[in-house]
Amino acid sequence: MYNFKDSVSITVVSGNGGSGCVSFLREKFNAKGGPDGGNGGSGGSVIFKVRENLRTLSSYKNGHVLCAKNGKPGMGFKKSGANGEDLILFVPPNTDIYNEDDGTLLCRLEKLNDEFVILKGGRGGLGNWNFKTSIRRAPRFAQPGESGINLNVRLELFLVADIGLVGLPNAGKSSLLNRITSAKSKVANYPFTTKIPHLGVLRYSYDNLIIADIPGIIKGASFGVGLGTKFLKHITKTKILALIIDISEANFLESYNILLNELKSYSFDLFNKKKIIIANKLDLDSSKKNFDYLIKTLGKEKILGISIYENKGIDELIKEFFILAKTF
């Protein structure tokens, strides 16, 4: 699912209203009946609606023009034209809708079945029977339908999570998410296995937390290197950052510094978020010595050691996540 898309610009157009009808009743025994032109139908509206199983905006393409249906014209015998069909555009939860032209936030759709009518369809025109008066007995005119409206919009998907798992490729973020939640994030021994953010629900007692697995950060990510800023912005929506370090590697301290530098380069607000350091892969031979050195070097930071393979430290980590989350 590499075609993850969290931003797209499209044009939406509501439907035109149908024209009113000019018609006169003509029957066998009523050759000169009065006006009976029906009203035009309303044009279709444009509606954005949240669909729960969507996780990306990849069903839309930049520059696409999406139109609701036009209303049908009125008919004789005072029959109104059919209304145009609404255009319903489904989006994932937590989607912002902006006016592309001036940057105004029009709506934020957050949860299942949230919807927003962004454009109403044009009104149908009145048929000529509406204009009959005691003086004007046979009006030979009707209203045209109202034109639809077009609008350039930008859709922005944002993730909301209590804890964001952040680390270099292969640090163990996906494995940890799979272990502590019901998520099924892909795991393999090569960089950028995770190419889209994954969310999981961590349940403990009668409480739960939303955990986000953010694709691997590398040096220069804040300037667009690798998967770059594509996913860094999603971390800004998380409350707590969990920095995962592969403690079995010789350059584990360099990995930690890379993460901090990329967070700081992208945003000071991001850098200043509450953090916890998770030293992963304690089951490997070199890890114990490295872990002791990490604690000695970064003693003021909150550090927990775990082994996903041996299930070591996982229960303590879960409890700590909930303790940290309660501080908000």
Walkthrough of the structure:
The chain starts with 6 loop residues before the first strand and ends with a helix. The protein is α/β, with parallel strands linked by helices. The relative contact order is 0.13. A 6-stranded mixed β-sheet has the order 10-11-9-12-13-14, with helices on both faces. The protein has a 5-stranded mixed β-sheet with strand order 3-1-8-5-6, with no helix packed on it. Strands 4-2-7 form a 3-stranded mixed β-sheet, with no helix packed on it. Helix content is 17%, strand content 25%. Residues 186-194 and 220-228 have low confidence and may be disordered. The longest helix has 15 residues, at 252-266.
Concise account of the structure shown:
Helices cover about 15% and strands about 25% of the residues. It contains six helices and 14 strands.
